[in-house]
Amino acid sequence: MKTQVAIIGAGPSGLLLGQLLAKQGIDNVIVERVSGEYVLGRIRAGVLEQGMVDLLREAGVSERMDREGEVHTGVELAFNDKRVRIALDELTGGDTVMVYGQTEVTRDLMDARKEAGLTTVYEASNVQLHDVKTDAPYVTFEKDGEQVRLECDYIAGCDGFHGVSRQTIPDEVKTEHERVYPFGWLGLLSDTKPCHEELIYCKTDRGFALASMRSPTRSRYYIQVPLTDKVEDWSDDAFWTELKRRLPADVAATMETGPSIEKSIAPLRSFVCEPMQYGNMFLVGDAAHIVPPTGAKGLNLAASDVATLYKIMTRVYKDGDKDCVMQYSEICLRRVWHGERFSWWMTNMMHDFGEVEVNGTDSQTFSRFMESELNFYTDNEQGRRVIAMQYVGLPYEDIK
Predict the structure, then answer these.
(1) pLDDT tens track for 58-71
(2) So what CATH class is 5-70+97-178+269-354?
(3) Edge-to-edge strand order for the sheet containing 47-48?
(4) Cβ distance 303 to 52 under 8 Å?
(5) Is 23 a catalytic residue?
(6) Residues of the signal sequence (predicted)?
(7) Catalytic-labelled residue, pool 181, 278, 310, 391
(8) Residue 391 is a catalytic residue
(9) 293 is catalytic
(10) Which residue among 100, 138, 181, 201 is the active-site one?
(11) Which member of 12, 137, 248, 293 is catalytic?
């Protein structure tokens, strides 16, 4: 097999990159180790930044999103018996976010790729990347018992934190930064009416909670739990009871509950790999960086990586400018670190760290620092604007 860009991973970042490249006439093949059904079974993010919404429209896959997704002009922070609304559109000059599940984004991209007749190899095993520092890299994998070689010009590693792409970069070349948090999020998905028209981030003495949604009839809720907890420790009734204790009283009093469709516990971590490029291989999304979900940045940072690589590849194949590929890591990492910092900041402010010392500060002192931080940024318009600008997403950087 031969292609121009080999994409490793058929999650939303790989599929979006493939769709955008195909729109420019750039041939690409996606190689995925699991089945398409498995990919669609992943329950993930649901808040899309303005930049990602615009990118999906540019890719020609926004019809269902624009019809079924919900535009949100604000988000609430609840703490100390206060509820502060961050008016996103008013504070950013009109930018908003779109509530539309990652599963639905992935489904739309899969359908578009199938309709366009583009090649995706699912259930490919033993995927390996070769000669990525040369002008003739290639990928090998096994499919249906056969060894396959895929020759290409460039490789996009969109295969997640545990994928092979990042492991291809030698240890002496890369630097990995990591912060692991001492708690996780227990998430529950249910076919119930959302308890509020906008997301509510709650900081309480019992721990963090988030009231989110996927549609007008499907809700997504989270509560902070110790890392020692297991999903089977939490019945649906126990979850709903604890969630109501953490939500504002008036919201809890009227919220609709029901059986869970899915429950899972996600550990929280901050992670960045530098650089995000090795020769003609580029890391995209979770392969290069992980954020705690508090800032709704994971999928959105992946989209900004895709936007950067798409612009670079377009210039390479349309203008013959191969030197521009060296800008990829530098451009991506600037935005990644902004997203990492915002997610870290929101996580620190909104969660209860218990008795754990944080950054060399005892827990009680750290808690008072974060309480002051929340009050400072929410009590004045300039502070709320700082939150809003980052929540809707910083602008994508152009290629020089």
Answers:
(1) 999 999 999 999 99
(2) alpha beta
(3) 47-48, 97-99, 70-72
(4) yes
(5) no
(6) none
(7) 391
(8) yes
(9) yes
(10) 201
(11) 293
